[in-house]
Design brief:
Blueprint: H1 3-11, E1 15-20, H2 24-35, E2 40-46, H3 49-59, E3 63-66, H4 75-78
Parallel strand pairs: 1-2, 1-3
Length: 79
């Protein structure tokens, strides 16, 4: 990456990401990938649709990675 591209990337707004999945392994991997990606910040995890709605209201994420197949309120209904 050239210097001006790196400087632009460092000054770019950070995308706040929240993950929602009932499987801890997916949440852990998604968190690691987001944290390793420049310009993205992992702001929270939820384990259900119900929890996701409350957490999203509190954290105001820009992007939510959500599992569509969960017990209770699924990802599609949550979105």
């Amino acid at each position: 990456m050239e210097t001006h591209e790196r400087d632009a990337a460092l000054n770019a707004p950070t995308v706040k990401v929240m993950t929602v999945d009932d499987h801890a392994v997916f949440r852990d991997v998604a968190r690691e990938v987001v944290q390793a990606t420049m310009g993205f910040e992992h702001v929270g995890d939820a384990t259900s649709g119900e929890e996701a709605l409350a957490l999203a209201a509190a954290l105001d994420p820009d992007l939510v990675l959500i599992d569509v197949c969960m017990a209770g309120i699924d990802g599609l209904e949550t979105a």
